[in-house]
Amino acid sequence: MDGCDGAAERFEQHRGRLRAVAHRMLGSPAEADDAVQETWLRLDRTGAEGIGNLGAWLTTVVSRVCLDMLRSRAARREEPARDVPLPDGDGPEDEVLLLDSVGRALLVVLDRLGPAERVAFVLHDLFSVPFDEIAPVVGRTPATTKKLASRARHKVHGSPVVPEADLARQRDVVDAFLAASRDGDLEGLLAVLAPDVVRRADPAALPPGVPAEVRGANAVVRETAVLGRRARHAQTALVDGAVGVVVAPRGRLLLVLVPTVVDGRIAAYEVIADPGRLAALDLAVLDPVRGAA
């Protein structure tokens, strides 16, 4: 019993890191908890006495568990449900903290990586695990694993199609739009929207009876159907090489906003919700990813 209690105590010292690794790999706090629990069960069966570096051993095991879950998900070709009503909040407090620390845009982009790419990228770029330790997890050589992570890194960062200065100006405008939307700041919205702004949206993004196109700043500001409370689930991202917005409750992609910025104001924006159109978009993060090399 003492040995079991000792193993459990040592495991608890690593639980936070294991859950962080699993959440970034799986994008779901509930699935991350399942992966951590399975890791504990494997440790309990194996025993901790003969394990020299318990932290590395646990990271390897949780990574293999996550890889199996990702491969199973890919085999089932799961798609996030898009017709589920949005929650009033993000969910439990710890889930909100995880989303804030990871970033919704990063989770959306990670969902587009292959299972082995995602594991290699998360372990190396986000948790600084050496490639020779990642290689056995993904069943590749260290050199091939390094290529996997490099390919994933390129997808995560994307390729801007506008100069860096223009990208920064676009982002300032879109960030101001999101901030005003979240706060219900009508004057802030009018300040950032062009007077003749046009909002277009896929029918899937709108409640019944809401027109697919709205013209004029006052009309756009008055309507709350497109963003409304969804603004709290939004984050700027790179969309087809320019600044856009992903709306991702609990890290699951629901909508993408594609704005057109002219002379420091949003002249138009399109809300994309059709699954086929969403899948065709090239999405990447705007912020540098910690640890990328």
Please tell me about this protein's structure.
This protein is of the alpha+beta class and 293 residues long. Strands 2-1-6-5-4-3-7 form a seven-stranded mixed beta sheet, sandwiched between helices. A hairpin with a 2-residue loop joins strand 5 and strand 6. Helix 9 runs antiparallel to helix 10.
Keywords:
14% strand; 54% helix; Nuclear Transport Factor 2, Chain: A; Butyryl-CoA Dehydrogenase, subunit A, domain 3; seven-stranded mixed beta sheet; 2 domains; 7 strands; alpha+beta; 293 residues; disordered C terminus
Summarize the topology.
Layout: H1 2-26, H2 29-46, H3 54-76, H4 93-102, H5 104-110, H6 115-126, H7 131-138, H8 142-157, H9 164-183, H10 186-192, E1 193-201, E2 213-215, H11 217-222, E3 234-239, E4 242-247, E5 255-262, E6 265-272, H12 275-280, E7 283-284
Largest sheet, strands/sense/barrel: 7 strands, mixed
Strand order of the largest sheet: 2-1-6-5-4-3-7
pLDDT below 50 for ≥5 consecutive residues: which ranges? 79-90, 289-293
Number of structural units classed as domains = 2
Strand content: 5-15%
Report the top-level CATH class of the largest domain. Answer: Mainly Alpha
Briefly summarize what is shown.
Residues 105-155 form the RNA polymerase sigma factor 70 region 4 type domain. It contains 12 helices and 7 strands.
